[in-house]
Write a structure and sequence with these properties.
With 229 residues, the chain is mainly α. It has 10 helices and 4 strands, in the order βββαβααααααααα.
Length: 229
Amino acid sequence: MRRRLRRRQFLTISATSVGGLLVYTLERRPKRVHAQTKAVPQASAIKVRLRFFTEPEALAVAAACARIFPVDEAGPGANEAGVVIYIDRQLASAYGRDQYRYTQPPFVHGVPEQGYQAKDTPREIYRAGLKMLGRFHELSAGKQDARLKEIEGTLFFSMLRGHTIEGMFCDPMHGGNIDLIGWQLIGFPGPRMSYVEEVEQYHGRPFRPKPASLSQILGHPVRPSEDDV
């Protein structure tokens, strides 16, 4: 039987709409600075290959994530961190297929600490949720909030909210937290294994290291688990 190939889908975003360096004004208000601003006067477009979503689906999910974790006076939000890219990669991976979870019946409703216990995979949960969202990205902000209010008791919304937070603060190798924008926001220095060299150097003085990803700390690229075959 000939395998049916899925047509490649891409998400086109502005280079200046994601990531950046956070600097703070005298009033302690965050401002994003992009490295490409001076080199490229006009914002260039970036085409990101999608692994699970179609482009309209990715736009709808991105808009929903932006309402869950919006830009405000505290700093950037889900779109600046590239959260939808993180979610797309996770759903396309073994996680999306529920490869690592026991999915055989009987399915018993357990206690909250046991987590999700039913049979639907994350992919199937999102497929059902996308039908509830519809063309979410085309709605006004007020209608978007109303739509999310309608579905906030669903498993899909709970999963989407969790994935939004994960994509905001994950290591960038997983697709989210572009330019470490999430870690800049909360002052997280990255997965550093030791501070032995800094203990004496900064003794008695504040130590605020610049955030660094795992690949930056190790000095070589790191292959994320979702890219494993």
